[in-house]
Amino acid sequence: MAIDWRTADRWLMGEAMTNTLIADYINTLCDDIGPRWGGTEAERRAADFIVSTQNKHGLRDAHVEEFPVRTWENPSASITVLADAGRGGEAQWEADVRPCLFCPPVDVTGPLVDVGYGMEHEIGPVRARLKGAIVIMSMGFEPFTPPRLASLRLEDMNKLGVKAVISPHPEGGRRTSHGSANDWRDGEPDYVPVPWLQTTREHGTRLRRRASQGRSATVRVAARLFDATSRNTACELPGSLWPEEHIILGAHHDTTPDSPGSNDNGSGSSVTLETARLLAALEKETGMRPGRTLRFVTFGSEEQTLQGSFAYVRRHYETHERNRTAPEPKPRLMINLDELGTGNMKGVALVFPELRPLVQREMDSMSEGLRCHVMAQLDASGDMYPFAKAGIPSSMLWRWRFVGRHPDAAFGHASTDTTDKVRVRELKEYAGLLSRLLLRLSHVPPEKWPANRLSTRSIAKRIEEERGSVVRTM
Ligand SMILES: [Zn+2]
Known about the structure:
By secondary structure, the protein is an alpha/beta fold. It contains twelve helices and 14 strands. Strands 1, 2, 3, 4, 5, 6, 7, 8, 9, 10, 11, 12, 13 and 14 form a 14-stranded mixed β-sheet that branches. The structure holds zinc ion. Residues 252, 264-265, 302, 338-339 line the site of zinc ion.
């Protein structure tokens, strides 16, 4: 059946805005199930919920794919500022604390030293005091100065003999969040150059003053690395014209250890569910179907250095010499949804330039003012990265970078990323716009779709060239 675009657009936007299930998905994933750290029982429940929802909505072959995950747990952590026998006579006190993800266990007492942003000119005057020290270092970039990656500054601290690094959260209000101490472009989940902990902005100020008074602190982190089982989910809406070709819409369903993950990434997983539902319902009610197959995937353990999307790409698109299974044909495009509560939909940001005219043309036909951009650097901050690395045209949505970031997005990777942090009306619009875009992309005939000429070798070379550089596309 041919697509009557006017009817399809009206039907999809109307269904998206007036008959939405977005709030149900968000409430189930983020409030009923709650934190969904990859490899835990809660993550398993989230994956089961996603699969049963996809089944209920008539998607084909909804299933869970298990994979081994290198994971981490952290039963306790503390920063204790030791009592001051001198002038102030201050009693010992506990500073707010949250260690970085995969922080190694540590139990160390040492002098507090303030290194500012940890730049060369700041290290100079205190270099002799850094061996065995606990340093306070801002993770942002020093203003007016060529930026240096935070992960490299942590490496510097390790080389100087620092025992632990404490960084204040940039926002006020006693906030802390789980950070990553390594560069995800390197893909080493459990590599942390030096124990790195976050404190609140408020306690950061107090710690800096204690450092200037020559005070000491004890930093303790209990932590364990181990192997567990995490889960991806997948389902399809089969194509009516070119069923052997596919496009992926993906989002991670896991969270950091104690985050309800409403913006990050209940928003993206809910919009994935809803977009699939809208297109399945369009087919049921009007008979209008995608041309090529649409596949909806949710990833586990994204917060653990993208282990879920790496597992998905390995399993489906790489040749396995040992059992000689042929890989599936690569998808025509992968679109990643992450943190959609951060801003409204502005367009698509591609990793590679080849599809820009095609995607822009299809978005223009929607008359919604959406823009297609191409990222100047390979961005490893989301699940599009393993796909890009494997030579698959991939993308994320343009939502907040450079313009229109909602303040509620600054509560991520902590227990504060609750359901009040997302805007359901904007998520409804995302699902409506995405279902229209996917339907269009699925109907671009194969002869009008540029051949995939990406070479994994040149992509690997590009990643190598960009190693250590600051990601300017953020
Ligand atoms: Zn995320």
